[in-house]
Amino acid sequence: MPDKTILIVDDSVINLNILENILDEYDIIVATDAETALSIMEQEEVNLILLDIVMPDMDGYEVCEKLKDNEKTSRIPIIFITSKTDEDSIEKAYDVGASDYVTKPFKPKELLARVKTQFKIQEMEKELCLLSMVDSMTKLYNRRYLSKVSEQVISLARREKQELSIIMIDIDNFKNINDTYGHQVGDDVIVAVANTLMSEERKSDIICRYGGEEFVILLPATSLKNAQLVAENIRKKIECLDIEHSLDKNLMFTISLGISTVYLDEEKTIEVSLKRADDALYHAKKNGKNMSCAL
Fold it and tell me: Cα separations (Å) of 4 from 26, 116, 152?
């Protein structure tokens, strides 16, 4: 079953039939005018657009500009398909945001190759985007991802009328671990914490390495009371871990945790709730470490 959808926009039924035959390995949606194409883009998930330039009412350049100005469709690649071959037309196509340009009459192998190239570029961009959102050491999401996704999580919780809680975690005495056993052991401790968090992760949870030895967990559909139970379970699991190192004994360590809930009727961003979780974490540290505290 095709996993890529292509929208073909051309006012010629003959051209549409030719293109559908060439691209029969993909899921194809067709439109014969600009307004229909724009309407389809609001309703369907499309991965690539083949767009004719010369069309009645609205030409392909204007359609392309509208799609590029729309946040929802701005990153979808557009290949212009046209009989125009002059340099000015080609230059304008790229100026308005086209990814490629194919002239009529179509050469099937060339067209198919150009379509596949756009899909390869998309996959590479997705991989690069994912890498930029993931911490290389722990394979957890990073702080950048937390900033990006938190607004969506809050909006969903507000829409579904569900509670949302946050746990902030810090490894106790981490500087001492680095100074005593070396940075490699310190890295091993960070990875061990990350692996434990992932092993306890529920499907809806979002776990991030917040920076250094700090971690943040977003817990959708979770009350403050239940978040405290999750935090205590994590704390106990970490308390039982030990890390092998070059000395004759294993290293055991602990974590402190701060917990807060997001007040969905008041808070539109995650920062206020993170600050409250950080304050709770400070109280846990101040009162002896290896404990969780909620505010």
Answer: 6, 10, 25
